[in-house]
């Protein structure tokens, strides 16, 4: 059995080592894969704040992922076409600067999370899962038929957005950007769960009535968690769009929301490194199994089933020998 | 739009609702009663449709095909329950989500492995095909009327089973406290295998019945799964009555929304854009309905638990 | 030695199309007898983000010269602009979104199948010939569906009894059929690819409405037709290819395909086959590393197509004849028979917007 | 009829029972005593096969370790669990019927014993008062017509007057049906009145057992704290 | 007589046809333990739920420290100085005993919005939590997972969490439930001392404890207060004996 502390240290190092090795071995695609894993991990780290600590099983986190993606897509689209972005009487210039795009992505997804959270938190349990799914589907169908930005076809951005002082087109540099963001999010997550807020949120998941009787409002705690969670996932969406230089409604799809949950469950619910381990494993499986046979999904299914049946508390749980929180 | 057309569309909406109920019935049973989030329900639906198509192809008998669908899906369900689900009752809900997601992958690609990548042929039998004329002059497909009949029968049967039989009481008791039911002398494992098989069988039956007027293909189960979840959540989990009302509501909303929203938008937009906007909104309609219902009543229309 | 990257859909519900494109393509490669063509095939799972990453992989790691294989317009839109911007050639065996035919055209992008509107335009033209005066049209509410109705209307001269956008992935069409029945239409045009079309046709046949139906080939293609069954009999559909097009290449293709894979080839298989042959014909003249010469060789389209005469327009999209076919039953097998030409030497509507 | 020897059990990594010995003879009432957290409930759970355990565990010579939980119940062990654990979403009536087995105890006789359950027959168990739930749990166990009734804190949270009724009912049960009973309760006074024997556990081990009459105040003071 | 700390005025609550509390007016004064007893289903827990804000009364008001709190939420009442324990323990089972106590301390501090800094390193919170655990005798178990506690220990923790709030009034729903004889005795001694800090509204079926502790007793039967008085008065009341006490005492 390995202490969780070691895992928390080893996993990011391993994730860093892979692209560095690939750089030396001149396998740029491996860097792209690592970047994909990093970004998906970031999205799942966001979800894990709501899900792992707050117990909010959101099947609508693709909303924030997609909003982040479209924030990037729309801003860069207008910059690319030199056309201003008009919202009612206001006009904005598009931009190809990552920091600006990130800021917009975070703000937009946080606001959406506030709204969706405020409505959804009236419910709990499976009803919560389904109402968040409903919001996800609304955004999805809206995006599909929103022809101004490509509808179902999506939006292509020809050149990756820029980050001051870096050439983001170089795979390893873009990876570095994503990796640093992921580490910051992990640090935020670790800080949150040890903080007073984390303690209260953790209790709000398990016994909301107890939290009330000590004078705290469990709803507001959960809403706060949902907003932070949505903002991080939104940021991941912006990065994902930049990785692909493309956004489409599939970023809003319920399959994506489900995939984020699945990443977390594979890694270990409520574990700091759960989402990271889950994302790396999933991307690696997808990549390796995909080459084996046309029917590789069967084997992916078998591996996932093995994880559920034999690794209580996900892979991190298996390594540490402890089950995670009950969600 | 004539009154007869409107009446026909309302009938279509109801009929679609009953069809949704047929698809959701098995899910309500498993989900409401056993508290299990079974994402693989859509796969069992697909198994039923494929089994029916295979048997109908081989024997030419639609009734045999239905029996085969029921049996194949129930068997698949029983196996799945004994091999996988049984170990997960005590596990967190999310483990069940992951496990049943894995099952979707296995079922979908496994089916493609066995049956190939192309849709299969399954059609309405001659004795049920073609329209009949209803009072009011509506020409309505006989098969759809038959679907309504089966849906109503399933609804009544399920309600009777869970509310009126001792088996049903035991099943519901098991959802509250599995350990205690066992400690008081009920073979809960067998009971759950039975329920799961029954739920799966209903899914398979729905797959075959609905498959006859739709496309029998890999992946046909996933959209159904989402719709079925929407239905049972609107109705309130664990309530057969809720699922039934929920299904009718969703059916009506979807059908009538698809027709009237574009018309509505045509009142103040040019026709092309109105159709597009209207149908975009129509595709969101059931989700809007669901969130309104849940914001209004956080545990569905007939949900027991707060 | 050339390396070709094929990104196509090999798993999930849409796998049939990708498999046919791949099989047609590989058949042509095999028949060419060349062993210097290395085809790398990957499954995009019908997901745009996966497709983009596979393209990255093929360009960065596999260092391919030519990309091909994508089935769906939205995936093509995700992959093609970036790939051709990086100097790779892309040969489309299926998707032809209007954005890539008009202002977004590119010297390194060639479409060997059709521009998305083509078959719908032909359906409009056929409807005129067939004497339809008042047609009811429907398609799913997404870009390809919107293009389809636009394409049909571009050529159809009669009136529209109704125009509906259905939901993407919809499976029940009772409401639409009721509207058709009530609309007083004399015919129906629909574009509902994949399972949607199967569901619609079965339900339409059972409803007893019985008006003549016209549609693009997608819902009547070899792979899907068996699943539609009797409901499709007699329906007229438009296609640039059919297994009974009478030329030696096509005859040989149908025979060898059947011999190799044990099934009748589909539209998609023919497109994959033609794509490979176009590529081979260009390779005979120049290497992809010599981009200008290779491009010129592709533009010449100096290969013998299963469709007979084949040439590219100025925007690298085909100028080709589109046929009207009718669904028939040959023994136990449903298939298509050409009943006439819908549009002769047809080019797409966007060529003028293409500046290259 | 029930024989437990050297029973050990654990919750995950932590061991809770270190060797419990206990016998209940036909028609006997045995009190299981001990301080909070000493393993009384764990012993009961092991007997009912709700948690795994090791050691000797036999009922009328049958090895319970070979049987799943429901078979033990069908051999005639009726459990009133700690914390009531009524089926929340079922009505009172359904709670009673869900696991009923044929025998002398029927809906009529149970509602005669606890009239309040009759009054609340159609109400969901979750909305019952604490005491009502306790009555329901006892009634539910009786409806399985057990030969060995296990009562784990069965009078917890009941009004004195009802508690007296329940003790009276237990005494009556013993006299009229000869049912064997294993009792856990905090009220030593009442335990002493109805039980023949006492078993005291401390830190997961049996530390004393014998006839109720032999249970001196010194012993209870030492092991139970009163 | 001093101003009551906590008072209800004519509280009424019905569930359908059933009147669970019927015109209940009781009060709690500084330094006293006021016990509420009554048959099962008499409406005691329902009364507590209304006092603490978990249930809205159909009619009547609740007054805390002279202020009408009827319209306030549970958490607002807790902030105003009301601490409650549950009849069935409501604790964060996956967390440690200390975490549960810390939650109380955090509630008392009133600010859960600090997103940084380890809560366990916060000396003020920690001291407050440990002091409460110490008082109920759970200090040694601070690091134990709450799920691993025995029933009785959970009851103690339940009280400890209430203690961390340093409330102006306690409302306790059967704190002795599940405690062994010894545990009850210890708890009784403990509550006896606690009344100096804040008065206790005590619902309890353990008559030994009630008679030992209560300054006043109110008897609730079918939702109505049928008697209020000292221990001796209540013991002697024939109506109470018939409805509740039986031959006991
Ligand atoms: N689910 C559990 N997981 C881990 N440990 C447990 C669990 N349940 C009980 N324990 C531990 O096992 C020991 C025995 O507990 P048990 O419930 O059997 O005591 P008890 O004698 O019934 O006490 P009480 O009188 O308080 O009910 C206790 O130390 C408790 O901490
Ligand atoms: N939500 C509800 N719906 C219907 N009836 C209810 C509800 N909650 C409580 N009751 C009923 O109200 C009455 C009072 O219940 P309450 O829980 O207040 O009793 P209590 O005095 O606390 O009893 P005990 O001492 O047994 O805990 C009971 O008869 C109970 O069945
Ligand atoms: Mg106990
Ligand atoms: Mg109570």
UniProtKB/TrEMBL annotation, chain A:
TM stretches of this protein: 35-57, 62-80, 100-119, 126-149, 169-192, 223-241, 261-285, 297-319
Record bears the keyword tRNA-binding: no
Protein name per Swiss-Prot or TrEMBL: Branched-chain amino acid ABC transporter permease
Annotated localization: Cell membrane
InterPro entries in the cross-refs: ABC_transp_permease, LivM-like
CDD domains, A to Z: TM_PBP1_LivM_like (cd06581)
Any single Gene Ontology cellular-component annotation: plasma membrane
Origin species: Thetidibacter halocola
Protein topology in the membrane: Multi-pass membrane protein
Keywords linked to the UniProt accession: Cell membrane, Membrane, Transmembrane, Transmembrane helix
Gene Ontology molecular functions: branched-chain amino acid transmembrane transporter activity
UniProt lineage: Bacteria, Pseudomonadati, Pseudomonadota, Alphaproteobacteria, Rhodobacterales
TrEMBL record, chain B:
UniProt xrefs under InterPro entries: ABC_transp_permease (IPR001851), BCAA_transport_permease (IPR052157)
Domain of life: Bacteria
Signal peptide: none
Keyword Transmembrane helix: yes
Main location group: membrane
Membrane topology: Multi-pass membrane protein
Keywords: Amino-acid transport, Cell membrane, Membrane, Transmembrane, Transmembrane helix, Transport
Chain ranges passing through the membrane: 12-32, 39-56, 62-85, 97-122, 142-162, 191-213, 225-252, 273-296
UniProt family annotation: Belongs to the binding-protein-dependent transport system permease family. LivHM subfamily.
Name of protein: Branched-chain amino acid ABC transporter permease
Automatic annotation (TrEMBL), chain D:
One GO MF term: ATP binding
Gene3D superfamilies: P-loop containing nucleotide triphosphate hydrolases
Entries under PROSITE patterns matching the protein: ABC_TRANSPORTER_1, ABC_TRANSPORTER_2
GO biological process, one term: L-amino acid transport
Span of domain ABC transporter: 2-226
UniProt-listed InterPro entries: AAA+_ATPase (IPR003593), ABC_transporter-like_ATP-bd (IPR003439), ABC_transporter-like_CS (IPR017871), BCAA_Transport_ATP-bd_LivF (IPR052156), P-loop_NTPase (IPR027417)
Superkingdom assignment: Bacteria
UniProt keywords, alphabetically: Amino-acid transport, ATP-binding, Nucleotide-binding, Transport
Similarity annotation: Belongs to the ABC transporter superfamily.
PANTHER family: ABC TRANSPORTER ATP-BINDING PROTEIN, HIGH-AFFINITY BRANCHED-CHAIN AMINO ACID TRANSPORT ATP-BINDING PROTEIN LIVF
Name of the protein this chain belongs to: ABC transporter ATP-binding protein
Species of the source: Thetidibacter halocola
UniProtKB/TrEMBL annotation, chain E:
Statement: the UniProt record of this protein carries the keyword Nucleotide-binding: yes
CC per GO annotation: plasma membrane
Gene3D superfamilies: P-loop containing nucleotide triphosphate hydrolases
Alphabetical keyword list: ATP-binding, Nucleotide-binding, Transport
ABC transporter domain mapped to chain residues: 6-247
Any GO molecular function: ATP binding
InterPro entries cross-referenced by the UniProt entry: AAA+_ATPase (IPR003593), ABC_AA/LPS_Transport (IPR051120), ABC_transporter-like_ATP-bd (IPR003439), BCA_ABC_TP_C (IPR032823), P-loop_NTPase (IPR027417)
Pfam family name, one: ABC_tran
The protein's name: ABC transporter ATP-binding protein
Source organism of this protein record: Thetidibacter halocola
């Amino acid at each position: 059995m390995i202490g969780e502390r070691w895992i928390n240290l080893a996993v990011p190092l391993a994730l860093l080592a892979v692209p560095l090795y690939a750089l030396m071995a001149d396998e740029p695609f491996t860097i792209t894969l690592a970047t994909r894993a990093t970004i998906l991990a970031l999205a799942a780290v966001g979800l894990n704040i709501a899900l792992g600590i707050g117990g909010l099983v959101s099947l609508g986190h693709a909303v924030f992922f997609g909003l982040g993606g479209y924030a990037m897509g729309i801003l860069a689209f207008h910059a690319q076409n030199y056309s201003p972005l008009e919202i009612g009487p206001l006009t904005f210039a598009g931009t190809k600067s990552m920091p600006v795009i990130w800021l917009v992505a975070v703000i937009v997804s946080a606001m959406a999370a506030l709204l969706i959270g405020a409505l959804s938190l009236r419910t709990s349990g499976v009803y919560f899962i389904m109402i968040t799914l409903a919001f996800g589907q609304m955004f999805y169908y809206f995006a599909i038929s929103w022809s101004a930005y490509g509808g179902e076809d999506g939006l292509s951005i020809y050149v990756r957005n820029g980050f001051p002082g870096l050439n983001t087109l170089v795979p390893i540099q873009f990876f570095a950007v994503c990796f640093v963001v992921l580490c910051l999010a992990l640090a935020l997550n670790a800080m949150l769960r040890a903080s007073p807020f984390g303690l209260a949120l953790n209790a709000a998941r398990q016994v909301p009535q107890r939290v009330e009787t000590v004078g705290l409002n469990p709803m507001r705690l959960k809403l706060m968690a949902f907003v932070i969670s949505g903002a991080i996932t939104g940021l991941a969406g912006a990065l994902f769009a930049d990785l692909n230089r493309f956004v489409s409604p599939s970023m809003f799809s319920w399959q994506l929301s489900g995939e984020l949950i699945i990443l977390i469950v594979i890694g270990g619910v409520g574990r700091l490194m759960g989402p990271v381990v889950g994302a790396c494993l999933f991307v690696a499986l997808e990549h390796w199994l995909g080459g084996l046979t046309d029917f590789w999904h069967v084997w992916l299914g078998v591996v996932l089933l093995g994880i559920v049946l034999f690794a209580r508390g996900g892979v991190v749980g298996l390594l540490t020998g402890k089950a995670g929180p009950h969600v | 739009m004539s009154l007869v057309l409107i009446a026909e569309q309302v009938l279509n909406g109801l009929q679609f609702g009953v069809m949704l109920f047929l698809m959701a019935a098995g899910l309500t049973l498993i989900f409401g009663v056993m508290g299990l989030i079974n994402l693989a329900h859509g796969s069992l639906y697909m198994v039923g449709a494929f089994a029916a198509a295979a048997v109908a192809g081989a024997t030419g008998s639609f009734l045999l095909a239905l029996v085969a669908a029921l049996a194949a899906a129930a068997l698949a369900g029983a196996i799945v329950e004994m091999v996988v689900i049984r170990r997960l009752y005590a596990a967190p809900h999310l483990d069940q989500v992951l496990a049943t997601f894995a099952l979707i992958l296995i079922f979908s690609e496994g089916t493609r492995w066995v049956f190939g990548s192309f849709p299969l042929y399954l059609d309405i039998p001659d004795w049920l095909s073609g329209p009949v004329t209803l009072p009011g002059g509506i020409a309505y497909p006989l098969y759809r009327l038959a679907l309504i009949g089966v849906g109503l029968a399933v609804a009544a049967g399920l309600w009777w089973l869970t509310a009126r039989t001792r088996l049903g009481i035991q099943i519901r008791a098991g959802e509250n406290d599995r350990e205690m039911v066992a400690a008081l002398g009920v073979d809960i494992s067998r009971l759950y295998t039975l329920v799961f098989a029954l739920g799966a069988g209903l899914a398979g039956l729905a797959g075959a019945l609905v498959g006859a007027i739709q496309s029998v293909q890999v992946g046909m189960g996933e959209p159904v799964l989402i719709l079925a979840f929407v239905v049972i959540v609107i109705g309130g989990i664990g309530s057969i009555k809720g699922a039934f009302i929920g299904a009718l509501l969703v059916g009506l909303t979807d059908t009538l929304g698809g027709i009237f929203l574009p018309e509505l938008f045509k009142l103040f937009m040019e026709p092309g854009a109105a159709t597009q906007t209207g149908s975009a909104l129509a595709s969101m309609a059931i989700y809007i309905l669901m969130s309104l219902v849940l914001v209004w009543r956080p545990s569905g229309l007939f949900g027991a638990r707060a | 030695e050339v390396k070709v990257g094929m990104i196509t859909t090999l798993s999930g519900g849409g796998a049939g199309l990708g498999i046919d494109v791949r099989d047609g393509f590989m058949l042509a490669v095999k028949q060419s007898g060349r062993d210097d063509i290395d085809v790398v095939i990957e499954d995009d799972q019908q997901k745009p983000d996966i497709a983009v990453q596979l393209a990255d992989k093929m360009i960065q790691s596999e260092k391919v010269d030519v990309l091909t294989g994508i089935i769906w317009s939205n995936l093509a839109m995700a992959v093609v602009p970036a790939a051709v911007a990086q100097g790779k050639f892309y040969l489309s065996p299926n998707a032809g979104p209007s954005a890539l035919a008009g202002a977004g055209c590119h010297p390194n992008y060639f479409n060997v199948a059709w521009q998305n509107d083509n078959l719908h335009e032909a359906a409009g033209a056929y409807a005129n010939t067939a004497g339809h005066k008042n047609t009811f049209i429907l398609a799913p509410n997404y870009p390809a569906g919107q293009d389809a109705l636009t394409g049909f209307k571009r050529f159809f001269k009669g009136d529209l009894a109704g125009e509906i956008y259905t939901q993407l992935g919809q499976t029940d069409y009772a409401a639409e059929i009721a509207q058709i029945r009530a609309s007083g239409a004399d015919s129906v045009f629909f574009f509902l690819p994949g399972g949607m079309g199967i569901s619609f046709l079965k339900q339409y046949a059972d409803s007893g409405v019985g008006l003549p139906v016209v549609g693009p080939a997608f819902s009547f293609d070899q792979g899907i037709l068996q699943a539609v069954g009797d409901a499709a009999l007699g329906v007229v559909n438009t296609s640039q290819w059919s297994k009974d097009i009478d030329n030696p290449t096509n005859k040989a293709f149908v025979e060898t395909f059947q011999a190799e894979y044990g099934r009748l080839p589909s539209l998609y298989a023919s497109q994959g086959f033609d794509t490979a042959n176009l590529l081979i014909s260009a390779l005979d003249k120049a290497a992809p590393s010599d981009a200008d010469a290779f491009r010129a060789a592709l533009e010449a389209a100096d290969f013998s197509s299963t469709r007979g005469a084949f040439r590219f327009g100025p925007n690298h999209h085909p100028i080709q004849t589109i046929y009207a076919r009718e669904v028939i039953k040959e023994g136990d097998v449903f298939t298509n028979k050409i009943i006439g030409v819908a549009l002769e030497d047809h080019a797409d509507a966007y060529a003028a917007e293409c500046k290259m | 009829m029930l024989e437990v020897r050297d029973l050990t059990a654990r919750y995950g990594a932590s061991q809770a029972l270190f060797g419990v010995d206990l016998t209940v003879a036909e028609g006997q009432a045995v009190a299981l005593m001990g301080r909070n957290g000493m393993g009384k409930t764990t012993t009961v759970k092991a007997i009912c096969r709700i948690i795994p355990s090791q050691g000797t565990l036999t009922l009328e010579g049958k090895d319970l370790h070979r049987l799943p939980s429901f078979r033990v119940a069908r051999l005639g062990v009726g459990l009133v669990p700690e914390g009531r654990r009524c089926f929340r979403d079922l009505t009172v009536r359904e709670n009673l019927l869900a696991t009923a087995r044929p025998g002398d105890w029927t809906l009529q006789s149970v509602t005669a014993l606890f009239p309040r359950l009759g009054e609340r027959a159609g109400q969901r168990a979750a909305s019952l008062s604490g005491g009502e739930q306790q009555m329901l749990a006892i009634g539910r166990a009786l409806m399985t017509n057990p030969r060995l009734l296990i009562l784990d804190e069965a009078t917890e949270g009941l009004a004195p007057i009802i508690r007296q009724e329940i003790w009276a009912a237990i005494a009556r049960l013993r006299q009229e049906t000869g049912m064997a009973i294993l009792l856990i309760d905090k009220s030593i006074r009442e335990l002493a009145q109805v039980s023949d024997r006492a078993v005291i556990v401390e830190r997961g081990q049996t530390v004393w057992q014998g006839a109720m009459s032999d249970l001196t105040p010194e012993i209870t003071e030492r092991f139970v704290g009163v | 007589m001093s101003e009551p700390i906590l008072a209800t005025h004519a509280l009424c609550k019905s569930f359908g046809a059933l009147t669970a509390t019927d015109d209940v007016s009781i009060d709690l004064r500084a330094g006293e333990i006021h016990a509420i007893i009554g048959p099962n289903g008499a409406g005691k827990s329902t009364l507590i739920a209304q006092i603490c804000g978990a249930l809205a009364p159909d009619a009547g008001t609740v007054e805390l420290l002279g202020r009408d709190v009827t319209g306030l939420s549970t958490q607002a009442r807790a902030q105003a100085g009301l601490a409650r324990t549950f009849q069935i323990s409501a604790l964060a089972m996956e967390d440690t005993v200390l975490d549960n106590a810390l939650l109380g301390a955090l509630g008392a501090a009133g600010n859960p919005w600090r997103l940084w800094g380890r809560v366990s390193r916060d000396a003020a919170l920690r001291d407050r939590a440990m002091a409460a655990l110490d008082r109920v005798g759970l200090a040694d178990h601070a690091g134990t997972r709450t799920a691993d506690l025995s029933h009785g220990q959970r009851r103690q923790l339940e009280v400890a969490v209430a203690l961390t709030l340093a409330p102006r009034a306690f409302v306790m729903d059967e704190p002795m439930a599940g405690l062994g004889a010894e545990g009850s005795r210890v708890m009784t001694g403990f509550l006896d001392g606690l009344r100096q800090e804040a008065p206790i509204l005590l619902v309890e079926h353990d008559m030994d404890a009630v008679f030992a502790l209560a300054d006043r007793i109110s008897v609730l039967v079918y939702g109505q207060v049928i008697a209020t008085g000292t221990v001796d008065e209540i013991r002697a009341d024939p109506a109470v004996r018939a409805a509740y006490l039986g031959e006991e005492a």
